[in-house]
Specification:
This protein is α/β, with parallel strands linked by helices and 316 residues long. It has helices at 2-17, 25-28, 60-67, 69-76, 108-123, 138-149, 171-178, 186-194, 220-233, 303-310; strands spanning 21-23, 36-40, 47-53, 79-84, 126-136, 156-160, 206-212, 242-246, 249-258, 265-271, 278-280, 296-298. It has a 10-stranded mixed sheet with strand order 1-2-4-3-5-6-7-10-9-8, sandwiched between helices. Strands 11-12 form a two-stranded parallel ribbon. Helix 8 (186-194) packs across helix 9. The protein is globular, with a radius of gyration of 19 Å.
């Protein structure tokens, strides 16, 4: 019986890890950031793509399995692109979002990720109007950088446990930034972005921000600063903010600001009782997904599903 149980566990583990396919740098091209590349292709043509960036100590596979993106993408036929950090770059496997050389669209880790995306667009049938990005912790922070550096690449982004762009350029500053320091004004935060575009100001994607109120790693103030920065970037200060508790989820506060047609919006989800984790709702019922993990918490709320709803990829 024990041998049979081990066999079943082995089969399940194989099914879990078999979902991602590695693409080598010989295939996707220039890799200045020395990252690894994994994909989960869609079955049909002209499908959306979601770029998923893992957090520190995670692998690409763990990230998509714990969050439930693997199952959600398979069910709804999305394409997943999941870059992976190497321990030789960062011993904690964090994306180096705080190093100027790694958040440059032409160099470092950001360039590697964008080259992976270019490979996917040229080798698979992907709807170029439906490209999204999401990330957790360091992966969320790198997602913010990519949204700032290449805003026209993405339709929208969703980030978990991270802060505004432009607060850190070295590890020491990164630790302070994770505590919300310096706590800059909205004008100062916006300037960190607009200074990158002296000749023109591009249109930036919508952003959905997720933050636990009890996060001891990335302080909740970081999400507030990111919301303020992105609201300023979108010039939404004249639009009233709306804060509501989600139906059937009174522990979740949703604050939004945006245009009447929702094409230009910023949304902040704040979770009572959530630490440095992603909300999940493990189970087999419709609308349930995600897995138990040190970086996830069962709050009867599948965050990946909410992200997909906000992205317009699945019906509400």
């Amino acid at each position: 019986m024990l041998r049979g149980l081990i066999f079943i566990i082995a089969i399940n583990a194989f099914q879990l890890t078999a979902q991602l396919t590695e693409v080598t740098e010989l295939e996707f091209g220039n890799n200045p950031g020395n990252l690894e590349c994994f994909i989960q292709p869609a079955s049909n043509k002209n499908r959306p793509l979601i770029l998923v960036l893992h957090g520190c100590t995670q692998s690409a596979q763990e990230s998509i399995s714990v969050s439930g993106w693997d199952a959600l993408a398979k069910e709804n036929d999305f394409f997943l692109l999941a870059p992976q950090q190497r321990m030789s770059n960062n011993p904690n496997r964090c994306f180096n979002w705080f190093r100027a050389e790694d958040i440059d669209s032409l160099n470092g880790e950001a360039a590697s990720i964008l080259n992976m995306l270019s490979y996917c667009l040229s080798h698979y049938s992907i709807d170029t109007t439906q490209i999204f990005i999401t990330g957790f912790s360091a992966g969320g922070q790198m997602s913010v950088s990519l949204l700032v550096l290449t805003p026209t690449r993405f339709k929208a982004g969703a980030v978990f446990a991270c802060g505004p762009y432009g607060l850190a350029q070295n590890p020491s500053q990164a630790l302070k930034a994770m505590h919300g320091k310096p706590e800059l004004s909205q004008a100062q935060l916006v300037k960190r972005v607009t200074d990158l575009y002296s000749d023109h100001q591009p249109t930036f994607p919508s952003l959905f921000i997720y933050q636990g109120d009890d996060d001891p790693v990335v302080y909740p103030v970081c999400a507030t600063l990111l919301f303020s920065q992105w609201k300023g970037i979108h010039q939404l200060n004249d639009f009233p903010e709306q804060t509501v508790e989600l139906k059937d989820h009174p522990f979740i506060r949703r604050t939004s600001a945006g245009s009447m047609d929702n094409s230009n919006r910023v949304v902040l989800y704040q979770f009572a009782g959530l630490g440095h984790q992603i909300p999940v709702d493990p189970g087999m019922n419709p609308g349930q997904g995600g897995q138990y993990n040190v970086f996830s918490k069962d709050q009867n709320f599948w965050a990946a599903m909410q992200v997909a709803i906000d992205f317009g990829l699945v019906p509400h």
